[in-house]
Write a structure and sequence with these properties.
homodimer, mainly alpha, 228 residues, 13 helices, 3 strands, 11% strand
């Protein structure tokens, strides 16, 4: 069995049920290659953990921010989105614990953002089962809600296209314009490369599997450049 | 102030904070006409209650059903969808408590399904704040989770089109076919009338604001007829 002591020391909680902790890190692909493995994969734990995370974040926002529901929803989305959760999972060294199939391993599965995010939700579910709601709450306060002030201060809860538009209007008095540079790949796996500019000045480029996703990627890249 | 005693007696819990209970039933439209009214509308409570409901239902499913996560998700969707919540709100007499504007009142707002569902979520949020998690849990067990066995027994968690297809294949050895009969209304408020049939036998009709929604409505009506 993997030694989880570093993880447990880091979060200040030691699991009573060692199998439950192990299960957090079992991706479904691992079981395809190890059919006799005695534990389930982590998807049911993820189902539970997602709801635990949602309530703890929601209640914190409700109690501490007087903003209208629509704004609280954008704060919450920024906190619980896959990208944010994956980032937290990496700081907790999850890629070293995750058990995936050899195929998944080769395609970089161990560090795929959504596998990381799913494992973090499974971990929250396991914490709730093993230690109770208060233990899960403490973990979420220290590791997730701790990112909230930074998100609000930097407007990270506002979508990149709106943020870029605000920025260019404030600094240049002008709205950004998006051009699709290319559209490649078969129908089920299209790739759009999008450029964003003000007048003739290119601000950034991005790639996505829809026009909209390409625009968001371009706006994100433009913001990174402008706010350097 | 409205007398909430019948409601409180029915659910077996008496609110300490009367304003909180009142706030559950204040729709945003009411405040437009009563600007000096001292309470907020119910949307922030709804934001909280939605997450409380989600966790309590999720934890119940996790603990009592060994099914894969995908199936648990369909059970949960059937339990927390607007239609189900509105139905519960009506049995609790919510339409008599809801405070809406005169305009909303005229357009039938007091009994609109989504206003009912939102008020029920707000009520769950208020229960959680006033009585704590265990009180909210008891209410959800008695009023929401109590519908689960019926949902599973009657396959109500499976979408109507899939259920109809299963039924017609089993009983007639044939797949249903959908025809759009008409498409009316302006672009932002289209209405599709859809007919569902096997060969030349009409099974039902339905109306929706997309082709897909019209098909689901037609399948629902066909199932009602076939299962009579």
């Amino acid at each position: 069995m993997i030694d989880f002591t570093p993880l447990e020391e880091r979060i200040g909680y030691s699991f009573k049920d060692r199998d439950l902790l192990q299960q957090v890190f079992i991706h479904r692909s691992y079981l395809n290659e190890h059919r006799a493995f005695p534990l389930e994969h982590n998807e049911r734990l993820e189902f539970l953990g997602d709801a635990v995370l949602e309530l703890i974040v929601t209640e914190h926002l409700y109690r501490h921010y007087p903003n209208p529901e629509g704004e609280l929803t954008t704060y919450r989305s920024a906190l619980v989105k896959g990208e944010t959760l994956a980032q937290i999972a990496v700081t907790l060294d999850f890629p070293n614990y995750l058990m995936v199939s050899k195929g998944e391993e080769k395609s970089g599965g161990r560090t795929k953002a959504y596998l990381m995010a799913n494992a973090l939700e499974a971990f929250i579910g396991a914490l709730h089962l093993d230690g109770g709601y208060a233990i899960a709450e403490q973990f979420i306060h220290e590791n997730v809600l701790s990112m909230l002030e930074n998100i609000i201060a930097n407007n990270l809860h506002i979508d990149p296209k709106s943020r870029l538009q605000e920025y260019t209007q404030e600094h240049f008095g002008i709205t950004p314009h998006y051009d699709v540079l290319s559209e490649t790949g078969p129908d089920h796996a299209k790739e759009f490369t999008v450029l964003v500019r003000i007048n003739d000045r290119e601000l950034g480029r991005g790639v996505g599997n829809s026009k909209q996703a390409g625009q968001v990627a371009a706006a994100t890249s433009a913001l990174e450049e402008l706010l350097k």
